Amino acid sequence: MYSPVTMSRNMYYGSNFWSAYSHKLKRDVRFYSDLEYEHWLLVETNSDIAVFCEQPLKIAYEFEGKNTHTIFDMWVQERSGKEYFVEVKYSQEMRKGNKKYNRTMKQLEIQRAWCEENKKEYRIMTEKEIREPRIHLDNMRLLVSLTNHFIEVNPYQEEKILNLINNGCFSVSDLCSSYPSIPLRDIYIILSKNIFEGRIQANLDNLDFGYKTEVWSDG
C-alpha cells in the first residue's frame, strides 16, 4: 500500500487544484488538474477497484542536464488483486510540436521503465478515455456527490427496493410506482449507494441518471 507524496499546491499546477473526500478510502484526496480529478471520479465509482492512492510514488531522473523527478498520478488495485500505475495526460502534450512534448515523453519513458523493472502494469489515461462518453462521467460526478448521503439510507426501504430489483430490470419510474411511500430522493440515494458498492448495475453510459434510468442485479 502506498501513501500520497506531499506536493506543493502551486509548485506546477496553478489553480487547477481539487480536494475531495473519498468514500472508498475514507479520507480526503487531492488532485492537481481537472483531468486528474475526473479520472478519480471514474476510479472512485468503479466497484471493481478495491483501493487506490493518488501521487503514490516519486522517481528521480535527469532531464536536459538537470536533476528532476516524476510522480505517478495514481496507483490502483482491483478486488481481483490486479494492480497498476496510472499517468493522466492531455493528449496534446504527447504530440510533436507541443512545448511540453519532450518533457512529457521523457517522463512517460521513465515511468514505463520503472514499471517494467518492477513488474508493474502501466497505463496512460487521456481525456479521450476519461471524458468519453461525457454522460457517463457526469453520472459518476453525481454519484460521488451523493456518497455523503449514504448514511441516511433506511435499511428497510433499501431491502424492499433490492428485493424487487433482484427479480428483474426496473426503471426509476417503475420503482416510484411500486413504492409510492418512498420519496424519490431516497430512491436515488439507495440506488446510488448500491451502484457504488457493486450490488446493482445501471445504464449510466448513455442516459442521464433520472426517471428513465434502468437498474438490475447480476447476482
From TrEMBL:
Gene Ontology molecular function, alphabetical: nucleic acid binding
Ranges for domain TnsA endonuclease N-terminal come to: 46-127
Its keywords, alphabetically, are: Coiled coil
Concerning Gene3D superfamilies, the annotation shows:
3.40.1350.10
The record, for Pfam families, names: Tn7_TnsA-like_N (PF08722)
User: Origin, by domain of life?
Assistant: Bacteria
**Residue ranges of coiled coil:** 91-118
What is the name of this protein?
TnsA endonuclease N-terminal domain-containing protein
Per the UniProt record, the lineage of the source organism begins with: Bacteria, Bacillati, Bacillota, Bacilli, Bacillales
